[in-house]
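Provenance

Sequences were taken from public entries as deposited. Structures were produced by running a predictor on each sequence independently, with no templates supplied. The record for Lipoprotein-releasing system ATP-binding protein from Rhizobium tibeticum is shown for reference.
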Amino acid sequence: MKRNTVLKLSGVERHYGQGETLLSILKGADFTLNSGEIVALVAPSGTGKSTLLHIAGLLEHPDGGEVTINGNACDGLPDDKRTTIRRNEIGFVYQFHHLLPEFSAIENIMMPQMIAGLPRKEAKERAGQLLDYMRIGHRGAHRPGELSGGEQQRVAIARAVANAPSLLLADEPTGNLDPETASYVFDALEALVRQSGLAALIATHNHELAGRMDRRVTIADGKVVDF
Ligand SMILES: Nc1ncnc2c1ncn2[C@@H]1O[C@H](COP(=O)(O)OP(=O)(O)OP(=O)(O)O)[C@@H](O)[C@H]1O
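Predicted structure for Lipoprotein-releasing system ATP-binding protein:
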């Protein structure tokens, strides 16, 4: 499979507060992620993993440097263009699934597709395929509250990739699960990434899962480094 650069961070800076409360979290961070690559972001609490993911996912602006997604330099773009790139190119998975509780699993996966303008029938077909792929095809009619934690996370992963993004950003996607379920959910995530050629950056405290990814990076002194 031909690999291309999906995400590029160049000299990214992020500071919070000022004066005595100034906190420099990212100090010229560089990072490149290619299609088909799964990278673990493993770093101690408070070093800036979520900050980095928010900046990479265009949810926050950096204070300096540049975020490039599929060749588009994003920081000078107006908000509506950033929203379009975020909606079309990026899928997010969080530690807590954030599924809509009043909708069924399949409806949760259909939602982003319908927001993007796909007809209901097609959205439902794709959502069904994704549920099958995540091995929970038989639970599509159930609401999140009726599913186990691992099943909820698999629905959240299916929802994140529903619009066929090129970049998947995950913040502790298995952090809320026991080790066995975490491993099972990661299997499903990995299969999906491998099959679709997505680029994935996954923040995790789980060293066993990190060991299964293609590459491991950490944040040290405000920079992204391999380890
Ligand atoms: N809006 C904010 N104002 C001030 N400080 C902030 C703000 N957001 C984050 N921080 C601080 O920046 C640092 C990095 O936060 P971040 O959430 O990115 O860390 P993390 O590595 O994801 O941590 P964890 O593993 O605990 O989730 C923390 O010390 C946090 O308190």
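Residues 16-17, 23, 25, 43, 45-51 surround adenosine-5'-triphosphate (CB under 6 Å).
The chain is about 35% helix and 25% strand.
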